[in-house]
From TrEMBL:
Belongs to the DNA repair enzymes AP/ExoA family. Coiled coil: none annotated. The lineage of its organism: Bacteria, Bacillati, Actinomycetota, Actinomycetes, Kitasatosporales. SUPFAM superfamilies: DNase I-like. Keywords: Hydrolase, Magnesium, Metal-binding. This is Exodeoxyribonuclease III. Residues 6-256 form the Endonuclease/exonuclease/phosphatase domain.
Length: 265
């Protein structure tokens, strides 16, 4: 079995102070993908930078204090890669991947965007470059007899079932028609599978992000934007997937919750 967890930590230094460290110590995951690390390796406490029993790959952003992804693995990867061949985005701390026996695991922090601003233009440029890479990655993996899972904060709610207040968000970044259409292309054109949705069809959520404002968490008024997106062969071997939602607001160590899946490999 291969257990993979993914979580946007909303700043790893802050998360480490709030509860990430005991969560990591207690997880049964073989791979943990992190997003929005927002720190260089030398800024992290030793136990977070090099936790016992883990091999770590950090991909910080060139812009200090922004973005950043990481991959933690129980066994040493056969190969690692930072970026996906983009002149604009490879230094932005938004993508990294690690090859393990038979499977490539990637950590993605897709830009959040903001409708009607330059941030949204940046997001759309990222999407335009990333889809061809996803196709290439799948083709390359298939030629090598490998599977792929791209974990992370995709910052797009695909369907109405993927966010609580979808009517109020139809003109907001994360639920714009062009973003949702792009994600459809990931599934239909590039041939990937949304693992959590495949195991939980017809269900509202399960949400993975809740705003800190108001009582969003207590009311479960969230978004399902943290995904594990896999090639069909691996998705077919997913036996369980869930969101590790904290029991109470006070026990949260990020505004996101870990999304975990177990694969028979």
């Amino acid at each position: 079995m291969l257990t993979v967890s993914s979580v946007n930590v909303n700043g790893l230094r802050a998360a480490a102070r709030k509860g990430f460290v005991p969560w990591l110590a207690g997880t049964s995951a073989d791979v943990v993908c992190l997003q929005e690390v927002r720190a260089e390796e030398d800024q992290l406490p030793a136990g977070v930078r090099s936790p016992e029993g883990w091999f770590t790959l950090f991909a910080p952003a060139a812009a200090k204090g922004r973005a950043g992804v990481a991959i933690l693995t129980r066994r040493e990867p056969d190969r690692v890669r930072v970026g996906f061949g983009s002149a604009e985005f490879d230094g932005s701390g938004r993508y990294a991947e690690a090859d393990l026996p038979g499977v490539t695991v990637a950590s993605l922090y897709l830009p959040s965007g903001e409708a009607g601003t330059g941030k949204q233009d940046e997001k759309m440029r990222f999407l335009a470059e990333f889809l061809p890479y996803l196709k290439e990655l799948r083709e390359r993996a298939a030629a090598d007899g490998r599977e792929v899972v791209v974990c992370g904060d995709w910052n797009i709610a695909h369907r109405e079932a993927d966010l609580k207040n979808w009517r109020a968000n139809r003109k907001n970044a994360g639920f714009l028609p062009e973003e949702r259409e792009w994600l459809s292309r990931v599934y239909e054109e590039a041939g990937y599978v949304d693992v959590v949705r495949a195991l939980h069809p017809g269900q509202e959520g399960p949400y993975s992000w809740w705003s800190y404002r108001g009582r969003a968490f207590d009311n479960d008024s969230g978004w399902r934007i943290d995904l594990q997106v896999a090639t069909p062969g691996l998705a077919d071997r997913a036996v369980k997937a869930w969101v590790e939602r904290a029991a109470t607001h006070e026990e949260r160590w990020s505004d996101h919750a870990p999304v975990t899946a177990v694969y028979g490999v």
